[in-house]
Amino acid sequence: MSAVGERGNGTIPIDAPGPLSETVVDLLGRLPTDPGVGAAARAAVELAAAVEEPLADDDLQLALYLLYELHYRSFPGVHAGWEWNPELLRLRAALEEGFFGTLEETMPAPGAAEPEAVGDELFRIEAADEGPSLSRFAETQADVERFREIVVHRSLYQLKESDPHSWAIPRLRGAVKTALLEVQHDEYGGGQAERMHSVLFARTMRGLGLEDGENHYLDRVPGVTLATVNLMSGFGLHRSRRGAIVGQLAMVEMTSARPSRAYGNGLRRLGLDAEVTDFYDEHVEADAVHENIAAYDLAGGLARAEPELAPDILFGARAFLFLEQRFARHLLSAWERGESSLLRPL
After folding, report:
1. DSSP state at residue 162
2. Rounded to whole angstroms, how far apart are CA atoms 248 and 265?
3. Which residues neighbour 71 within 8 Å (Cβ) at sequence distance 6 or greater?
């Protein structure tokens, strides 16, 4: 009897916005041994090279997201053999080249990265960030529908928090690994499954009248949002980018406590109870503890242990802030125009 995920009759119920994601959806509905797989994947590789704005392209980012999901929990009915299929890996590499190549070209060139000063430099990068404050808007102005949109956007990561960072565990050593595990232990509930942050977020979704299934809203979320998740998956899956995933996680922990307090306050302003705010309230406490561990013990420790990774650590932190700024601007601009920030309104 074939196990679930081995049948090759998976259907991913999304409307693909373009030929790249359409190709991936089509292939994942077949068996990896199906004739024509190679030709279809190679044609998509050529299309990927022609994408002009990879950082926010809905089609490219969705195609890349779908391929990354094969390394998490995949999709019902999708054959397990697709995860390491050479044709899909070749396509994924082409999509990554467009995404990360453009990101590296777009980001301002980093200054000198002294390994001993990486922790302090991360705090300087945080202090210099002048991006728009989505959390401040949520705290003071957002109505329930705006909050629902925020939660839908964030669901693609928060329902698997902090899985992308766990790929770094076997790639680190000694005290650096211990620092990462200290952070991850809390992310996964400190030994209590019901306190896992992904579980708390699912409860927030239900409290706002939303479906809490992984990827339920995938076809409503634009490329500018998918890019923030693909950044983590791409960093985490590549050993060569272990410095970047550490820098990205450090900046997440350093910039989470104050916005989380603002989101919780905004939900309370709207009369919502602890069942909905628990996720954000948990992050106020946990991330206030984590920020120094992440900056000095994790990121700083990795820079001291492997000095050549110092620039990558800072790049990961800066890339995270850069994409978060683009994400926040998208939401706030859409709402200013009186439009939904999603591809299709809820």
Report:
1. T
2. 26
3. 83, 233, 237
Residues 133 and 75 in one domain: no
In the numeric block, which tokens belong to residue 170?
Answer: 């076997």
75-98 per-position pLDDT tens digit: 999 999 999 999 999 999 999 999
Confidence class of residue 4 from pLDDT cuts 50, 70 and 90? very low
**Of 81, 106, 131, which one is at a domain's C-terminal end?**
106
Task: Calculate the alpha carbon distances from 216 to 164, 221, 304 in Å.
Answer: 19, 10, 42
Neighbours of 190 (CB within 10 A): 10
Is 6 contained in some domain?
no
Average pLDDT of the residues of the chain = 94
Question: Which pair of structure tokens corresponds to residue 120?
Answer: 């302090």
Distance, first Cα to last Cα, the chain: 39
**279-332: per-residue pLDDT in tens?**
999 999 877 789 999 999 999 999 999 999 999 999 999 999 999 999 999 999
pTM of structure: 0.95
Name the helix (H) or strand (E) containing 245. helix 242-254
Q: Are residues 153 and 269 in the same domain?
A: yes
Give the other-Cβ count within 10 Å of 105's Cβ. 7
The token pair at 119 is 């922790």
Distance (Å, whole) CA 141 – CA 269: 10
Residue 204: helix, strand or coil by DSSP?
A: helix
Concatenated DSSP letters of 16-63 = --SHHHHHHHHHHTS-TT-TTHHHHHHHHHHHHTT-S-TTT-HHHHHH
Per-residue pLDDT tens over the stretch 123-135: 999 999 998 999 9
Q: Is residue 346 part of a domain?
A: no
Distance CA 112, CA 216 (A): 43
